[in-house]
Specification:
Elements lengths: L2 E2 L6 E2 L11 H12 L12 E8 L9 H8 L3 E8 L2 H14 L6 E5 H11 L33 E13 H6 L6 H7 L4 H13 L6 E3 L2 H10 L18 H15 L14 H6 L3 E7 L2 H9 L7 E5 L7 E8 L7 H11 L2 H11 L2 E2 L8 H4 L11 H9 L11 H17 L4 H16 L1
Parallel strand pairs: 3-4, 3-5, 7-8
Antiparallel strand pairs: 1-2, 5-10, 6-8, 6-9, 6-10, 6-11
Helix pairs in contact: 1-13, 8-9, 8-16, 16-17
Length: about 450
């Protein structure tokens, strides 16, 4: 599978996005003309190769960006080394940072890891604060990659603004509204409203179907829509007392105990894809990249059976997103920094969005036709460019911690145990806390 990002991040497949206006090629050329004067030039006299290490699917090859960069700079060839699973990629990155060898010219960093890298490995990375304009990104994005001293260790790639994907065919059969604005109104009060809608669905649900695929996905959305999640502003872990964690756990426990959730481990090959294909799931918590997963796994037969609306509540969540950093001991730091600036510029982020559905973190991309006018034919032509940009504007500036990804994984595992093994909420909570305590130390 192309993009595999685990609980701390995401998994996604490319999604076909329909737009009006400029084509991707035109956007690329426009971006090149505006950026080429200062953002991609190489001072190297001879040919060089820049290596980019990442995980899953960043979309650069799919959007043709590496080939385009070579056309702009014939002396520079870009080679990508991709690891399918971020959980495999990250320990290797830490090992290479510790040893000072084996690093690529550009390294991808998952949002669930960025705090740990900023706190413990910032000295290994070049400062990009003079290379990029951090104000071009959504307000909270580049802050995540900035040290207390102002060093910027990574340029933001994508983000995962949360929406809600729902099966209009199942909603109609259960007597629920199918219009995306009316669905949004039903859940406007927040995630409690979402579960209330689930209770309505359950009363008339078609046999063998469930309101949601996974309570752990909902838990992650609840937590991620708050400023304080697993750590407080002083950097201390608060996963035992955090109100967002407690609220998310309460709602997940309710979904599990009342049979609103199918109890699936998201992306699990033997269970999750068949459930989508067989139309047994009515809603999926939907960061921007999730649409590609649904369309791929539900298949062509279910086209137009799905739609997308805004997430429950007044503040959205972010699930996923990455950064590109430049190890400062590399052979081509200046050229690598220029490549990172170009890859994360508005036109290039818009091209990646068109190619694989990864939503830009550079807010200047939101006015480009490829983003602004984007619709998803599979989802009844949902205006995702508009929806995701709106959601991105309501995402709070979350406090991140060094072990966010591991903490999320531990809670998700125990929520799945509640769903699949009928573990009590109290036991599942204690098991999660015990595992997290061992990880955090």
């Amino acid at each position: 599978m192309r993009i595999t990002r685990t609980a701390g991040g995401r998994r996604r497949r490319a999604v076909v996005i329909a737009t009006t206006g400029l084509t991707a090629t035109a956007l690329l050329l426009a971006g090149c003309s505006s950026d080429s004067s200062d953002s991609g030039k190489s001072d190297a006299n001879g040919p060089i190769t820049l290596t980019v290490s990442d995980y899953g699917q960043f979309g650069y090859k799919e959007a043709g960006l590496f080939a385009q960069y070579h056309k702009l700079h014939p002396n520079i060839t870009v080679k990508e080394d991709t690891t399918a699973d971020e959980k495999v990629y990250y320990p290797k990155l830490l090992q290479e940072l510790n040893s000072g060898s084996g690093l690529s010219d550009v390294q991808g960093i998952e949002v669930g890891r960025i705090k740990e890298v900023v706190d413990t490995k910032a000295n290994n990375f070049a400062d990009l604060s003079k290379v990029i304009n951090v104000d071009d990104w959504v307000s909270w994005k580049e802050k995540q990659a900035t040290t207390s001293g102002g060093q910027v260790i990574g340029a933001g790639t994508d983000i995962g603004p949360m929406s809600l994907c729902y099966n209009t065919d199942l909603f109609k059969k259960a007597g629920l509204p199918t219009d995306r604005d009316k669905v949004a109104q039903k859940v406007a009060g927040g995630w409690s409203d979402y579960l209330a809608l689930g209770e309505e669905y359950k009363k008339h649900a078609p046999a063998g179907t469930y309101f949601m695929d996974s309570a752990s996905a909902m838990f992650n959305a609840v937590v991620s829509s708050n400023t304080q999640q697993y750590y407080d502003s002083s950097g201390q872990p608060v996963y035992k007392t955090s109100s967002s964690v407690k609220d998310g756990w309460k709602l997940a426990s309710q979904a599990a105990s009342e049979g609103l959730s199918h109890g699936l481990a998201q992306f699990d090959p033997p269970t999750w894809p068949p459930a989508l294909r067989k139309n047994s799931v009515a809603t999926v918590v939907c960061p921007a990249w999730m649409a590609g997963q649904i369309s791929t796994n539900a298949g062509p037969a279910n086209k137009d059976h799905w739609d997308i609306t805004t997430a429950p509540g007044s503040s959205s969540a972010n699930w996923g997103g990455s950064f590109l950093g430049v190890p400062k001991n590399g052979k081509h730091v200046a050229e690598a920094s220029a490549l990172v600036k170009w890859l994360t510029s508005p036109a290039q982020q818009a091209a990646v969005f068109k190619a694989i559905g990864a939503f830009p973190s550079n807010k200047k991309a939101y006015t480009l036709p490829e983003v602004k006018n984007a619709k998803l034919p599979y989802f009844n032509n949902a205006p995702v460019g508009k929806i995701y940009a709106q959601e991105a504007s309501t995402i709070p500036a979350a406090v991140l911690g060094p072990k966010d990804a591991d903490i999320k994984d531990a809670f998700s595992t125990q929520i799945t145990n509640m769903e699949q093994r009928h573990t009590s909420s109290a036991k599942a909570w204690n098991d999660a806390i015990n595992n997290i305590d061992k990880t955090v130390g």
